[in-house]
Design goal:
globular, mainly beta
């Protein structure tokens, strides 16, 4: 079984503009710089089916924390005042998030491996964004 709890350092984002658009943010050089900041971290805490994900983006001061229990819906806030109803399931070494805002459904999953985690985000379009982290 692959370790899920831990601290992960951001390495690379593929198609970061898709993450920004889906979050309702403007795609600007500043926003792209922040989302690609190499000092960004993801901290995952786990206690059974209860999790806390804390994301910090470099030195910008941005910090986002989500608390969830596998299989239980929760309200997830995004920048731009969007609130999604989100349910997380576990599939082997993946945590799969399904979020709904109005009638729009998006999915993202965190796939954990020996060297880190890949977050794959599909905002309900053909575009897919990937954030890669290494374990530290």
């Amino acid at each position: 079984m692959v370790q899920i709890a831990g601290t992960y350092q951001h390495m690379q984002t593929i198609k970061p503009e898709e993450i920004l658009k889906a979050a309702g943010q403007e795609v600007t050089p500043e926003a792209l710089g922040a989302i690609n900041d190499p000092n960004s971290k993801l901290v995952v805490e786990a206690n059974g089916d209860n999790f806390i994900f804390t994301t910090t983006i470099g030195d910008s001061g941005y910090k986002r924390e989500i608390k969830f229990t596998i299989g239980k819906a929760y309200d997830e806030e995004f920048k731009g005042a969007k609130v999604a109803s989100t349910v997380v399931s576990k599939d082997g070494n993946k945590l799969v998030f399904v979020s709904t805002v109005a009638d729009k459904v998006s999915k993202r999953y965190y796939e954990f491996n020996e060297s880190g985690v890949n977050m794959v985000y599909n905002p309900g379009t053909t575009a897919e964004a990937i954030r890669k982290y290494k374990i530290v």
